[in-house]
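Suppose you are handed a protein chain with no further information: no name, no annotation, nothing but its sequence. What can you learn? This example shows the usual starting point.
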Amino acid sequence: MQARPHARADLITGLVFVTLGFAVGIESYNMPRLEERSIDPWTAPGLVPGLLGIVIAVLGGAMALRSILAGATRASASGDTDAAETRSARTRLLLCLALCLGYALVLVGRAPFWFATGLFVFAFVAIFEWRLDDDRQTRAGKLAAAFALSVAASLAIPYLFETLFLVRLP
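A reasonable first move is to predict its three-dimensional structure. Written in structure tokens, the prediction is:
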């Protein structure tokens, strides 16, 4: 059985995310818990980063496991990608980096957080789900799904952070 072309890259990326998630979890555990001030443990500054670190580690582990099941550890998985696939992967990486930096450096702080988040989610989903060979109806469905997801994210994320985690958003 032939391995998926990007299985090896997914394995490495998954392991990096597991390591990053554990590092975030450890550092958030080491943050002050403010027990000496009788602060409610649910408002400790390391709680949200710790939870996010756990999620990153779990999802990274799932990605690594999926890539192993897809053949990342088989000998045939080593470097069978052609130049077009490599160029496409680099383009997607740079596009993802541009979107994330645009969100973090341009939108957040200049636009209301809910709007910046909704715009980012819509653009990210719409761009990465776009296929040139899709028909008009499929594209419309994907854009509608991206819009619905962006509305849900722009409502849920600020609510969760401000109400549940008591984090002021920009």
